Amino acid sequence: MSSLEKAILRVRDLRRSYGNFVAVDGLNLQVNEGEIYGFLGVNGAGKTTTIRMLMGIITPESGTIELMGETTRRTTLKQKQKIGYVSQEQVFYPWMTGQMLGKFVGGLYPKWDKQEFERLLKVLEVPADRKTSQLSGGMRVKLALALALAPRPSLLILDEPTAGMDPVARREFLDIIEHQAREYGRTTFFSTHLLNEVERAADKVGIIHQGKQRFEGDLKLLQNRVQRIKVRAGVTLPAGFNVWRVEEKPGDVEGALFEMVVDAPPELWATTTVARENLSLDDIFIACVGVAAKRI
Amino acid sequence: MTGVLFQKEWQRNWFTFLWLGILIWLIVLITCYFYNAGGTGAGVFSGIGMGLMILMPISSLFLGHALVASEFQSKTQLFLEGLPLPKWRMITMKLFLAFAATIFYAVGCILIGWLYAQGSEVVTPRFLGILLSSACGWALFSMGFFFVTGFLGRYRFLIYLLLVLSILLLISSSVPMSRFPPYALIDYSRFGLEREIWPISNLRFTGIFIVGWVVAAYILGLAKEGSISTMLGEKMSYREKMFIGGAIVIGGLAISSVFSQPKPEPFSLPGAVVEEWDGVEVAISPEDPDPDKPVDTEVAIAGKLARRLAEQRDWLGIPPVNFPKIFIVEKTDIEEKEKIDWDESLTDNSILMYAGYREPEFSENRLLSWTLSQVMRKNSMKRVGREHRWWIICGLEGLWEMEQADPETIREREKLAVEAVKKHGLTLNNLWDWSKYQKDVEWRSADAVAWMGMRHLMQSRGKDIVQSFARRTVTRRFTRVDGRAVVWDYSNPVAPAFKAATGITLEEYVKQWREYILSFESEKETKP
Predict the structure, then answer these.
(1) Closest-CA residue in chain B for A105?
(2) pLDDT exceeds 90 at position B511
(3) At A34, is the secondary structure helix, strand, or coil?
(4) More confidently predicted of A169 and B37
(5) Which end of chain A is more exposed for a tag (fewer CB within 10 A), N or C?
C-alpha cells in the first residue's frame, strides 16, 4: 500500500462467534478512499457477520474498527450516517412508496440530498410513487441503492446486493456501482460469492473463509502470486512458497510428479526453475478456500 | 429523527388507531345509552367500567400486534437496523404511541360517560379524577402487558393461552380478585361508585406493574442487539408447533380437570325435620337436636314454608329444578329484632337460613320473604343484589311479608315509608342508588318504601303486572360462575323492563309512587 493512500475503513483482529461457532476470527482488512473492495467468500464464510459488525448492528467480541479516521469497537451513529448500506435482503415497509421511504430515511441523515435521491430514482428507473410491495426484486435493490447513495456517503457497503438478480440486472447494477466509484470517487465495499463480479468491478479483493482472512490485495497481484506448479517428489520448495492446495498426489513413488497450487511473492518466482502455470481466478479461489473436487 | 419515527408509525398504524377508537367509543356510547335509558347516573360509569375492563385489554392486544409484533414478523426491523437509528429510540416511540393511544381511548370513554351523566348525576372534579386515574391505570397496565408480549413473537400466543386459563381458574376459585390491583381499579363493585377515596394504593401497585412492563419491553427489544426479539418474531418451527400444541392440550386437560372436579358435597342437616311440597324441600333443625324432644314447631314451620315457597316459586316462574333446597337452623342469639339471618358461604344448590323461630318477634312471613329473596340472589349469581335491582327484591319481600299482616303492622310500616319519603324524598336516582338510600333512611324504612311501591303497582295495575315485572327482572337463573349473569344484567336494564311490563315509564311511576306514599300522611286508616 502506498503511504499516500488514505484508509477509509480499517479493521483489526475482528472476532465474533455465535455460541461455539466462530463466525469471524481475527479478521484484518483495509479499504482505501475511492477504492472498490470485493469481499469474497463462499456462503457461510463470515461475510454478512463482518458487514453487520461494520454497520454496528452487532458488536464484535474483540478487535477494532477504524472508520473515517475514528477508531471504535462498535460503529457509532455518527459513523453510520456517513455510510450507505444495502443489505442482502430488501425488506421495506410494503405500504410505503419509494417517495415515502425516501422521506423517512432522509430524516435520519443530516446530509440527505433529496434532489440526488429523486435523480437516482429516475436514472435507475424506479417508480417513486409505486408501493414497495409492487416492486420487483431488482427494482427493490435499485431503490435500496438510491437510498444508500442519496446521503452522499463516504463509504458504500453492499452485502451481496446482486444475489437473486438475473444476469442483465446484475450487469446493470455493477455498472452503476462502477460508475459511482469512477465518477464520484465513491469508496465501495461489497461482498459477494461471485468471482466474475469481483473480477469485473473490484480494485482490491479480500478473501474470507471459515471466518478467517485468506488473502487481501489487488487481483493482478493475486494472479501473479498464486500459480499451479508440478514438482517431483523429494524436491524441496524454496523458502517463501506457501502451498495452498495439492491437486495431484501420485503416491509415494520416487520421482513422481506432484501438482499443487502455491502462493509466493512474484519476485520469488523468478528465482525458481519449477514449471508453473497461470490460474484462472476461479481456480485460485477454489484453491484458496480448499474445496475438494467431488465426483458423483 | 423523532419526527420521522412518529410519522412512520403514524402512517403505518393510523387506521388501527382510528378503528379501535371508533369501536371502543361506539360500544361505550351504546352502553351509556342503555344505562341512561334506565335513568341511572352511577350505572353509566359502572357500565363504562365493565366496558373498560374488557375493551382495554382487547385494544391493547391489537395495538401490541400492530406496533411491535408485526414489525418483527414482517422483518422490517432488518431494514431499520441498517439505518442510523438507535433501537431504543424506535422502542420508545412505539411505547409512547401505544400508551398515548390507550390513554386517549380511556379518557374518551370517561368523557362520554361524563356527558351522558349530565343532569342525572353530580360528577364532582374529585369523582372525575378518581374515574380517570383508575381508567388510565388499568389502560396502561393492559397496554404494557400486551406491548411486552408483542416482543415474544410467536410465543405470545402461549402466554395469552396461559393468561386465559389463569383467568378461568381465578374465576372458578374463590379468590377475591376485586382486592388485588390492578383489577381492583376497574372492579365493577367500586368503579363508578367510589366518589371520595382516591385509589392511591391500587394506583401505586399498578404503577409498579407498568414500570415492570416497560423495563421488560426494553430488555426484550435491546438484549443481544435485539436478536432475541428478532428470533422470536420468526415463524414457528415444526418442533415449536408440537410444543405449543402439547402445551395447549395439557392446559386444556388441566383446566377441564379443574372444572370437572367433583362438586362439593351437598349440605346436610343431620337430625333435621324435612318437609317437601311440590318439589320444594325445607329442612329445619333445632339449635340442639334431641331425638327425645318434640318437633311439632319445626314440622309446622317446614310444612307451611314449603307450601308457600312452592306457590311463590310458581308465581315467579322459577322452574322447580332450579329451586334450591332450603335449610333452616334455629339460632337464638340473633341480635336483629327480626330474628332471621342467612349464610352466604354455601356453594351447592341450597340456602341456609338461621331463625330464632321460637322468639316472639319471629314472623313466618318474614322468613318466607327473606328466603325467597335469598333464592333469587343465589339464582342470579347475586346480580339482583346490585343496587339497580335490589329495590325490586325489597318491594317483593314486603309484599310477601305483609300479605297476612295485621292492620297495626301494616300501619306501622306505612308510617315508616311516609316519614322516609317526607324526609328524604323519593326519586328515580334513589332506586339506582338503593344502598345509599337505605343508609340515608335506615334500611327498614327503605324496605317500607319499596313495599309500598310494589303494593301500589299491584293495586293500581294488578298482580299480573307485578308478576310480569318480577319475571322480567329478578327471576333469571344462572348455573355457572362466568360472565353470562353479568352480560344478562347489563343487557336487560330495569327501566325498559318496567315500561314493557307496565306500559308507563319508571320515572313517571316513581312520581305516582311518591304521591301514593305521601297520601298516607294525613290518613289515619289504612287504605284498602
Answers:
(1) B83
(2) yes
(3) coil
(4) A169
(5) C
Q: Does B7 touch chain A (CB under 8 A)?
A: yes
Asked if the model's pLDDT at residue A291 lies above 60, the reply is no
**Contacts of residue B81 in chain A, CB cutoff 8 Å?**
55, 57
Helix, strand, coil shares of chain B as percentages rounded to 5?
70, 5, 25
CA-CA distance, B68 to B74, in Å (whole number)? 10
Distance of alpha carbon B385 from alpha carbon B393, whole angstroms: 8
Residue A1 has pLDDT above 50, yes or no: no
- Return d(Cα B501, Cα B466) in angstroms, integer: 8
Interface of chain A against chain B, CB under 8 Å?
A: 55, 57-59, 77-78, 80-81, 85, 87, 89-96, 100, 103-109
The answer for residues whose C-beta is within 8 angstroms of residue B471's C-beta and 6 or more apart is B316, B317
Angle at Cα B341 formed by Cα B335 and Cα B344, nearest 5°? 135
As a whole number of angstroms, the distance between CA A274 and CA B440 comes to 116
Contact A107 B85 (CB under 8 A): no
Cβ distance of A81 and B78 shorter than 8 Å: no
Task: Give residue for cell 327501566.
Answer: B495
Q: Is the pLDDT of residue B294 over 60?
A: yes
Q: Which of B8, B78, B86 sits opposite A89 (nearest CB)?
A: B78
Peptide bond into B320 cis (omega under 30): no
Element (H, E) at A230: strand A226-232
* DSSP alpha helix (H) spans, B462-526: 463-473, 484-491, 494-502, 506-518
Question: Who's near A231: CB < 8 A, 6+ residues apart?
Answer: A237, A257, A258, A260, A274
Residues of B268-301 as b/e, b for ≥16 C-beta within 10 angstroms? ebeebbbbebeebbbbbbbeebeeeeebeebeeb
Grid cell for residue A285 = 479461489
Grid cell, residue B469, equals 315485572
Q: What is the pTM of this model?
A: 0.63
Residues of B with Cβ-Cβ distance to A155 under 8 angstroms: none
Residues of A within 8 A of B67 (CB-CB) are none
H/E element holding B214? helix B200-222
Better pLDDT: B264 or B25: B25
Q: Which three cell numbers stand for residue A211?
A: 471466518
Find, among B108, B95, B107, the residue nearest to B134 by Cα.
B107
